[in-house]
Amino acid sequence: MTANTLRQTKTIQAGQIVSGTVITFVIIGAITLLAHLPWGWTKPVTSFIANYPLLNAFVSAFIVANVVALQCLVLIWIERKFAGWMQARVGPMHVGWKGTLQTVADAVKLLLKEDIVPADADVPMFALAPYLVFIPSLLTFMVLPFTSAWVGFDYSLGALFVLSISALSILGVFAAGWGSNNKYSLLGGMRAVAQLLSYDIPLILSVLSVVMLSGTLSLTKIVEQQSSGWNIVRHPFLMIPAFVMFIICTLAEVNRTPFDLPEAESELVSGFHTEYSGMRFAFFFLAEFANNFFSGGLAATLFFGGWLGAGLPAALWFTLKTLLVICLMMWIRWTLPRLRVDQMMSFCWKILVPAGMALICATALATVGH
Amino acid sequence: MNQAASMIAFYSLAALTLIPALFVVNSRSIVHAGFWLLPCFLGVAGLYAALEAHFFFVTQLMIYAGAIMVLILFALMLTRNAMDPSAPQHNKFRPVAGLICGAFGLLASWALTQHAWQITDQSPQSAVEQTTALGNALIGMYAVPFEVASLLLLAALIGAIVLAKVERGPAPETAPLADLEAIHTLE
Fold first, then answer.
1. Pick from B29, B38, B55: which is nearest to A157 by CB?
2. HSE-CB of B23 using CA atoms within 13 angstroms
3. Nearest to B54 by CA among B127, B133, B135, B132
4. Which structural domain range is residue A177 located in?
5. Which residue among A163, A218, B57, B141 is least packed, with the fewest CB closer than 10 Å?
6. Nearest residue of A to residue B75 by CA position?
7. Among A165, A189, A178, which residue's Cα sits nearest to residue A127?
8. pLDDT in tens, B48-92
């Protein structure tokens, strides 16, 4: 790269930073204004819905499902722009302003594509797998508190529930790997099962340390307790290691580089979803980005005080914190190369699990006085 | 919850548990059989939820539907001939087995009807109280059985590793690029 093109790249990057910041502030201002409009006229509708538990559950589920689907479109656009920025290119530019409609076009393309089932596939498993992956990631959103009021179901065992539900998506990955009847898919599926199973343990340990500090399993209560200060600020010596461990494990859980061994484009031709096309492939992608958003949201809830914050609407605070955590994950993704399988396993079992145990002991010692 | 709704919930969850259980034993492909276990476990979890045993509901999801399922599937993947649709599903002891199972089923249902089950009108404790009570019991009154169970699991783990570990001699020394040289000599 000559000095001239380097300078041009730097200028483009500076321009992107400035315009990105301006756009962010404009969006934040618009949403804040919107939140301060008089919404009193919706009161009869919301109270009518709240009177009927089944209708209430249906409306909540409908909103959650749509939020999950739509945030996926936005996240993919952000991811591609982010990747472009980190690799000194511009990313999608042509469809819509700055490529904003690119993911919409991609989604429409995926919906219209032919759905191919390989001749030798194990058809029921092949057909079922995308939904087995997607349903658990949708269910996790049910208990994720966007604000104290905006939560599908305020479950008092929420932290435990999300951990157990998100572990179920392993089965879908396995079904995809097995059902495709393709050696690369099967290898990807086996890697995925080993990886997800192993990294579940340190993930649970890191969440457990937060639960021990808060003394509650309810996600909304964990946030409410942070009104005197975020967990990561109040107990930095415990919570910063817990957060690092959490981020590493979530990267492994959502199959992102450096833990993208189950997909591994260059060695397994994208692993367990090699044989998928059309709508079923879209479901895998949807699940991945839904998991991604959920992991960011869980990190914001556990460590950064969830919806708590001054000035802006609570849901906006939550979304901003979530997006920042997601950006951190994208930063790691586009910086680090992929691990080897043996490195991935030994790192989990020889470093993360003992570190998690030590963290639990330290948290127990710290909370013993309370 | 009113009577009719709880009856509907119970019978639909029982169907969700039992019908897949039939498919588990009758499925030709052993991987399919493994996957039929999932609705079975979910049905049991649903029964716990209907009884408002929240901690058991979540634990059932995590341990059975999550961990045990994956364990079974992992074992299937490492098994040779996991997919053999032509393998016979029955052997000559089929009538005897049916007789024993039927007799045991009759005996069990007779025994269960003999006991006077007490039904209370009180609603269960809240999820938080249940979980606290269970935690206190596990590290208080039942600490010793709990530790013994974990010791047993540890012993099983170590035993499995010892059994599975095969002593291998050092790998045979091959010169670098030996196979390439062999090809050259062939040419």
1. B55
2. 17
3. B127
4. 118-370
5. B141
6. A190
7. A178
8. 888 888 888 888 888 888 888 888 887 777 766 655 666 677 778
Distance, in angstroms, between A156 CA and closest chain B CA? 7
- Choosing from A58, A83, A112, the residue where a domain stops is A112
Q: How far apart are CA A51 and CA A43, in angstroms?
A: 12
CB distance from B77 to chain A under 8 Å?
Answer: yes
Based on the structure, what is the number of domains in chain A? 2
Q: pTM for the complete prediction?
A: 0.81
Residues A323-352 have pLDDT tens digits of: 889 888 888 888 888 888 888 888 888 999
Task: Please state, in angstroms and rounded to a whole number, the distance separating the CA atoms of residues A70 and B97.
Answer: 55
Domain check: are A88 and A140 in the same one? no
Whether residue A164 and residue B55 make contact (CB cut-off 8 A), yes or no, is no
Calculate how close chain B gets to A35, using CA atoms only, in Å: 34
Q: How far is residue A177's CA from residue A262's CA, in Å, rounded to a whole number?
A: 10
Of A96, A112, A128, which residue is a domain's last? Answer: A112
Nearest CA to A291 out of A347, A250, A350, A233 is that of A250
Phi and psi at residue A116, to the nearest 5°: -95, 130
In order, the DSSP letters of A104-158 are: HHHHHHHHHS-----TTS-HHHHHHHHHHHHHHHHHHHHT--SSSS--S---TTH
Say whether both A194 and A311 belong to one domain.
yes
